[in-house]
Amino acid sequence: MSAWSYWERKVFFDRLDVVIIGGGFVGLSTGISLLEKNPGLKVLIVDRRAIPYGASTRNAGFACFGSPGELLDDLSKRSPNEVFALFANRYQGIRKLIQRTGPAAIEMKPEGGYELLLPELADSIGEAELHMLNQGIEAHTGLPNYFYYKPELLKTLGLNRFGQIICNDHEACIHPLKTLQSLQRMFQEGGGKLLNGIPVCDWQSVETGALVQLDNIPQFHTRQLLFCVNGFAKQFFPDLDVQAARNSVLILKTHKAKAFTGCYHVEKGYLYFRKVDDQHLLLGGGRHWALQEEFSDVFLFNERLRSKLLHFAETYLLEGADYEVTDEWTGIMGLGHVKSPIVQMVQPNVAVAVRMGGMGVALASLTGEDAAQLLYQNLF
Asked: Looking at the domain assignment, is residue 35 inside a domain?
């Protein structure tokens, strides 16, 4: 381990106010919010990878807030106020993201969202359920008549194997990596510093802040330390209610892709698809087919799920059209017994902002604001 040069120390490590471990959407949003509060703060974000890839750059690019099936499932476990308040946070989080970056920078396509019901479940979400959901959403967001049926779309889209479609006009698709790059630019233009490709090896809380040890970097001091590591939180804090959950994504090259404008959800959101362009269809999810196996933080593709995803595409989406798998990857989400994010101090001068519940795109901006407020209170 070599010593820093004077220049390295002065730019990156001298008199740090906040160090953020994790350079995804939440970490960057926190850094931006801190510098908006006080441009004089010295904030450093460190990520162990050259490109942060827990979930921020490996998701489907859905700016979504919850399909009817997912929300009804949530309502069977939590109170209406909790479910609809979280829905509102997702909606407001996307609005905050757009206000920051602008829609063009993140390639936002506001083309709506759809939940498709399999034929045997076509009547499982009736008028009464939709009315109840719409009332709750309007009460918490001001958006009237959020969900509606439009069965004639099934034929228009070539989705004739489904029994029903439920639409909304407010969801959108974004480009995850361009979103990350836009947030990185904002953070750095605000005075923040980024170090990628360096894992954190050790840290400890001390009376004046925290000491941080990065790989092959001399130990340094910060007044506040924040972990934005989402699905990897248990690697650092084993007692936190955060469970790593793997999600699988495929890209299929097929002429059928051009029909699928917008965000599509099936089976309570466990399956999803969208077009990437007129020749490429993104298909992902399927975790419910191997729930226990997919509680993992290992980036491996489950071959059984891959086969089932392709069978689903062949049966319900492609109608015999040829296709080729051009890309496939996995991402790691952070789930828990409660879907709401955890933003709290875990040790003196050490905090976490984790557990995005598979909705990090929507929740990151507000979660970052909450984390920034928590740290700011401790700084001053």
From this structure: yes
What is the DSSP secondary-structure string of 212-234?
EEETTS--EEEEEEEE--GGGHH
Question: Is the confidence at residue 217, as pLDDT, over 90?
Answer: no
Residue written as token pair 């469970």: 243
* Domain, as residue range, for 200: 6-57+177-241+338-379
Is residue 1 in some structural domain? no
Would you say 247 and 358 are in contact if contact means Cβ atoms under 8 Å apart?
yes
Residue type, 358: G
Total-model pTM? 0.96
Residue 231: give its domain's CATH number. Answer: 3.50.50.60
Spatial separation of the C-alpha atoms in residues 258 and 287, rounded to whole Å: 26
With contact defined as beta carbons under 8 Å apart, do 335 and 355 qualify? yes
Beta strand pairing call for 263-266 and 113-117: parallel
Percent of the chain surpassing pLDDT 70: 99
Contacts of 227 (CB under 8 A, 6+ apart): 20, 21, 22, 233, 236, 237, 350, 351, 352, 353, 354
Strand pairing partners for 266?
116, 271
Which one, of 286, 282, 324, lies nearest residue 306 by Cα?
286
The answer to the question of residue 64 being in a domain is no
Angle between helices 360-379 and 80-101 (to 10 degrees): 90
